[in-house]
Specification:
By secondary structure, the chain is mostly beta strands. The protein has one domain. Helices cover about 10% and strands about 30% of the residues. It contains two helices and seven strands, in the order ββαβββαββ. Strands 4-3-2-1-5 form a five-stranded antiparallel β-sheet, with no helix packed on it. A two-stranded antiparallel sheet has the order 6-7. A hairpin with a 5-residue loop joins β1 and β2. The radius of gyration is 14 Å and the shape is globular. The chain starts with 12 loop residues before the first strand and ends in a 6-residue tail after the last strand.
Length: about 110
């Protein structure tokens, strides 16, 4: 099995390549590690490959804040400089836009 290195790191702010949301990465799976139900909910024509890093984001769009699970191929760096408003950021990170550092390290 080919081992991949994650392109993005915990604390980095990213945007979705297609959908209008962005967020901060708080965890990374080296390959798909969600449920089959979640996987099958993605339309086949846009379903990403399982063998790439998937990122857990404290995400937000214009209407709400939530947690998103996104494949590496669907993320791009967010260089907007706009502050994030997800209320969970302060529970996990110290710092501010561009310099988010985890308050503690966990392993699973």
């Amino acid at each position: 099995m080919k081992q991949r290195t994650a392109k993005y790191r915990i604390g980095e702010v990213v945007r979705h390549r297609v959908f209008p949301f962005r967020g901060i990465i708080f965890d990374v799976d080296p390959e798909f590690a969600n449920t089959e139900e979640w996987w099958n909910s993605i339309p086949a024509e846009v379903r990403p490959s399982r063998d790439q890093p998937f990122y857990h984001l404290l995400a937000e769009n214009d209407q709400s804040e939530y947690i998103a699970y996104v494949s590496e191929q669907n993320l791009v760096p967010d260089d907007s400089g706009e502050p994030l408003r997800n209320p969970n950021i302060a529970q996990i990170f110290d710092g501010q836009l561009g310099a988010y550092k985890p308050k503690f390290t966990t392993a699973h």
